[in-house]
Amino acid sequence: MKRQRSKILIGLLAIIPLLLFAYSGMTSNNQSTKQLSTNVAANKNEDVHIKDQEDVQATKTELTLSHEKIVEKTSAFMDILVQETDQQYKVKGMSTKQALIKAFNDVASSEVAKKYVDVYYNEKDDGLYIVPTELPPWFVADQDYQKEKISDNKYRIQQSNQSDLYGNYEIELELSYVQQKWKITSVNYNYQNDDTIDSNQAI
Asked: Phi first, then psi: what are they for 184, rounded to 5°?
């Protein structure tokens, strides 16, 4: 009996170190897993922080009105205003003023678009007709101009020009960042030779 108890005791003493070693390994693995999870979480937070910084920088870049953007918007405005017509001046691509005003959506506010469409187009029962006249005085891309920041999302562009039809004139454009894009939201003129301008051409 004493020998049997001794064998059991010796067996238990032999197992205890193995159990302690196994527990130590499990603890080490748990700590490694926790450290790995912490590192992954830290990396995710860092990635989110970097993305936030990139988004902020992208927004700042978008809200900076460049010369290229001014030229892009003013050129696009005139391209839309001058629609393709047939020999009777009937517009080919659309049949109503409302459709044409909507075509300016990415370039100008509907108020600005409507002002020009009402002057340069007539809507009839059978379609939309352009008024055969000269183009309005406009921004000239290769001429000097002044750019003034009115607010974080609004700029005023002023330019002095001269043409045979309109004489000396000043154009003032207001461009605003709305609906995540730059749009022409106001256009004003100062004519120095009013007698050279036909009444239906003076916007």
From this structure: -80, 115
